[in-house]
Amino acid sequence: MNDYIDKEKVLCWGGVAAGVGAGVVAVPVAAGALGFGAAGITAGSLAAKMMSFSAIVSGGGVPAGGVVATLQSIGAAGTGLAGKTLGGIGGGWLAKKISPCQSEEKNKCDGC
Hints:
- With 112 residues, the protein is mostly helical.
- The protein has a domain at 44-93.
- Helices cover 62% and strands 4% of the residues.
- It has four helices and two strands.
- It has helices spanning 7-34, 46-57, 67-77, 80-98; strands spanning 36-37, 40-41.
- Strands 1-2 form a two-stranded antiparallel sheet.
- Strand 1 and strand 2 (40-41) form a beta hairpin.
């Protein structure tokens, strides 16, 4: 039975799957690390500096739908289905691009 399993393809697809999982988790974790959280923006954090800069540039308020507002929304409530989908696609794509199975001399990931 082991003769039929291409271990290289299993490793390649496993890397892609791990990238998808990491992409889904990375966005909210990164937002939290910047200081965007469920309780609001953390004082003294990079998020606070971004909020201040955004308010100054826009004339006194943080624009709805802007980067700061979007990251705060992610920090407070997570990414939702669309964000998880995009994070997963991005993570999978990146994992496939950097995986060792994409070498020039031997493409071990044909069809992946």
